[in-house]
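Risk mitigation, structural track. In case the binding assays with heme C fail to produce interpretable data, a predicted complex structure has been prepared as a fallback.
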Amino acid sequence: MSSDNHRPDQILGHAHEADGIEEYDNKLPTWWLGLFYLTIAFAVWVFVDWHVVTPRSLAGEYDSEVAAALAAMPPAAKPIPVVIDAAHIAAGKAVFATTCVSCHGEKAEGKIGPNLTDATWIHGGKVEEIENTVFNGFVAKGMIAWGPILGPEKVADVTAYVHSLGGGL
Ligand code: HEC
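Fallback model:
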């Protein structure tokens, strides 16, 4: 590098040539500068609009979407009063045959789940207690919460059936 071949638009102070590529301090093209200023203006606009004009955030968007989804969901089912008569007991027997025999046995005599025909109860043998057990389950003990699966009517029917088996208090 000798000062003889220095040209006025070359950058001084550091190597202006590497591997045959020379570096010049030329003016940037107008179109390039225009785009550059446009991106700055865009960033300012986004910042002002996002944080000042209509404040938004990803967390806020998430919260409002979750709230909308929850509002669109049907209300959670609750147990309904159990009616103990022949028709409901018969309906409950059908539910029991398809849903409960695998664990409680053909005649509710007990298998994986306990006997439901005697007066010995873990969680209580009153109608409401049985319905609560069936509806909410004791999941940690292996008894499924049937409320959300069967719905309140079938839970009430199968409760009437279980209560009628002889052990009901
Ligand atoms: C996957 C196996 C399984 C199925 C299916 C099942 N249960 Fe159970 N059930 C259990 C177990 C295990 C327990 C004992 C829970 C405990 O020890 O707390 C139980 C407990 C119960 C109890 C309480 C008994 C007591 O002594 O308090 C009732 C009532 C009952 N089940 C009714 C039903 C009905 C009605 C159905 C059908 C809708 C059903 N169960 C389906 C496993 C099952």
